[in-house]
């Protein structure tokens, strides 16, 4: 079954490179540059970036590829988009993996964004996206500190998700408090929870965790 990989905001599909070779042994892996990232076209050039709208773009890609059944792994913003996809097209997604996801932006998230961002793109971002696109992404990420309603996954919305789900979260995630993972696990009917000891916001980027990530996600995708 095709496996769609959705990266975190400000990154590109290349962030999955350490995991792709092993995951591709059992899956048809499609790593996507999110709208407005990397080689993908702009979705919105204003300061507002909506994950629900990005989910619609990704679904458009899936339909273009004529895929009628997929699994999805999403990290951080990619996780928000995965949840929106599961809501918009419950018939499409069979299994989903959410890494460092959030049900809404907490005050901790907004504080960190306010303190760390909004100063223009760094060299790595410019290299990945080009200066114009990197500048827009920086502006959009900084706007998340005052954006409400996206994401917004209340218990009733989470309880409607049909896909079998694996929720992965670092216990030391200072961007998305671990309470987000608990809310997803508690309310998504067919879900499992994996808390990574000493894990940060994106624990799969730590080389020490990557073999375990590949093994755990691979096993989850094989399960009935």
Mind telling me the C-alpha Rg? 16 Å
Question: What global shape is seen?
Answer: globular
Mean of residue pLDDT values: 96
The CATH topology is what? Answer: Rossmann fold
Biggest sheet descriptor: 6 strands, parallel
Summarize the SSE layout with pairings.
Blueprint lengths: L1 E5 L13 H4 L4 E5 L18 H14 L5 E6 L1 H12 L4 E7 L7 H10 L6 H7 L1 H13 L11 H4 L5 E7 L8 H9 L3 E6 L10 H16 L2
Parallel strand pairs: 1-2, 1-3, 3-4, 4-5, 5-6
Helix pairs in contact: 2-3, 5-6
Task: Please describe the structure with a list of short key phrases separated by commas or semicolons.
Rossmann fold, 224 residues, alpha/beta, six-stranded parallel sheet
Write a concise synopsis of the structure shown:
40% of the residues lie in helices and 16% in strands. It is an alpha/beta fold. A six-stranded parallel β-sheet has the order 2-1-3-4-5-6, sandwiched between helices.
Describe the structure in your own words.
With 224 residues, this protein is an alpha/beta fold. It has a single domain, classed as Alpha/Beta hydrolase fold, catalytic domain (Rossmann fold, 3-Layer(aba) Sandwich), CATH 3.40.50.1820. Helix content is 40%, strand content 16%. The chain has helices at 20-23, 51-64, 77-88, 107-116, 123-129, 131-143, 155-158, 179-187, 207-222; strands spanning 2-6, 28-32, 70-75, 93-99, 164-170, 191-196. It has a 6-stranded parallel β-sheet, with helices on both faces. Helix 1 links the parallel strand 1 and strand 2 (28-32). Helix 2 packs across helix 3 and helix 5 (123-129) packs across helix 6 (131-143). It is globular. The chain starts with a strand and ends with a helix. The model has no long low-confidence stretch (mean pLDDT 96).
